Amino acid sequence: MQVELVKTFTFDAAHSLPAAPNGHKCKRIHGHSYRVDIHVSGEVDRQRGWLMDFGDLKCLVAPIIDELDHRNLDELDDLPNSTSEMLAKYIWDRLLPSLSALSAVTVWESASSRCIYRGV
Ligand SMILES: [Zn+2]
Question: Which of 70, 75, 85, 115 is catalytic?
Fold first, then answer.
């Protein structure tokens, strides 16, 4: 039985987008209340009846989210252009070594705008 689990995290951060066109509002520093959905996919363990423990997933993801929370993302050396796309990849790259079942990272920068990254 194949399933996909999704756990949602939130954080608040400031940033600017230096590569945005001149005059674009996102070139100015501003903030978002981000939502991040972490997706894991795979086979359900027959004995336990789950793919993985949501608590274990939280333990793996929370330190990454804590690094981003109440930060100016412009100050992160590994994230020079913190679009939702690059932020999703940033989270993916940090999480994948400890979470092989990772199948997608969704970054919501507003209630209506999100990026889904599946590692390709
Ligand atoms: Zn923004």
Answer: 70
pLDDT of 47 reads: 96
59 is catalytic: no
Active site residue 115: no
Nearest in space to 8 (alpha carbons), one of 84, 106, 111: 106
Query: Region 91-107: what's the mean pLDDT?
Result: 98
Fill in the DSSP letter of residue 29: -
Beta strands (DSSP E) in the chain are 2-15, 30-43, 71-72, 102-110, 113-117
Domains along the chain with CATH numbers: 2-117 (3.30.479.10)
